[in-house]
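Is 2-acetamido-2-deoxy-beta-D-glucopyranose placement plausible here? Inputs below.
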Amino acid sequence: MRTFTKLFLASVSVVLIAIKWNAPTFDPESLKGARVLVTGASTGIGEQIAYHYARFGAQIVITARREHVLKQVAERCLSLGAQKALYISADMSSESDPDQALRFALDQLGGLDYLVLNHIGPSPFSMWDGDMDHIKWIMKVNFFSYAQIAWKGLQALEQSKGSLVVVSSLLAKMPSPFLAPYSSTKFALNGFFGSLQHELAMKRSNVSLTICTLGLIDTDSAMEKVKGKTVAPAYPATDAALNIIVAGATRQPEVYYPWFTYVVTIVKDLFPGITSYSMRNSYTYEP
Ligand SMILES: NC(=O)c1ccc[n+]([C@@H]2O[C@H](COP(=O)([O-])OP(=O)(O)OC[C@H]3O[C@@H](n4cnc5c(N)ncnc54)[C@H](OP(=O)(O)O)[C@@H]3O)[C@@H](O)[C@H]2O)c1
Ligand SMILES: *[C@@H]1O[C@H](CO)[C@@H](O)[C@H](O)[C@H]1NC(C)=O
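Reply from A.M.:
I modeled the complex. Tokens:
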């Protein structure tokens, strides 16, 4: 079984490389002056996404809750080469803040070419304890606000032939222990935006929609949670961010980072027993 699994992984990898080979080439010039809104951009992957867009000379609006942190990120964006870098504080658990953040970006930039939905509210890394308030709140932050912003954003993106980019997770395809509420929000995202991808294609929309599947990434918030609790390797946020941007710019429906998350999503259903065994054994837990 082991040898077979290895052979299978190897052949899938070859196919993957062949697919990558055929991927449209990325033209960094295409992002010069591009009008971009990035959510959850005060820290982590969102912050790195903002810096990459800045280096490509884009016009950026960033949002998150903490204004003083956003201010620093926006200043750094300008020093890296952004044509514009503005920020607006918004709490995505509120009814009105998601719309306000989008409105601000549309007003300040005069339209939108890239809408990158990336924010998540903090959630605990622990066994499900029945906290319904947390589930309702995290659904609002990680899912409802995405649907809300996307709907209004799509109208602007339609005009600019722009791109909607949704940052999701391997846990949207394969739940892990200790993250039941978070994982539910990511499953909801993939269901919703997967459905929307069909509808956009059927409507012959001008908009491309990219769903990003990420493995474990070395952001402070993620590392703090899993420290000493998992043997899984973490990958650099700056690389994850660049892969997300390139996938959006080349209008790909999906992107996987690191690359083996793609292999995992293909293999997991073929070997459910091994998959569950490896998932449970990649975490330490003492009852
Ligand atoms: N890191 C990983 O291992 C990993 C793996 C797979 C997928 N992902 C995905 O990658 C994306 C970024 O993850 P990350 O690790 O970079 O997260 P992070 O470092 O925790 O950043 C989360 C961002 O969201 C903002 N935020 C939190 N609560 C908010 C609220 N109520 N309203 C508005 N903004 C809020 C935070 O800023 P404020 O606190 O200032 O509001 C921050 O800018 C997420 O979609 C995540 O699911 C991450
Ligand atoms: C695509 O963009 C053009 C403008 O370039 C617009 O006339 C058309 O209505 C858009 N398509 C859709 C489906 O909205």
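Short version: The mean pLDDT is 95.
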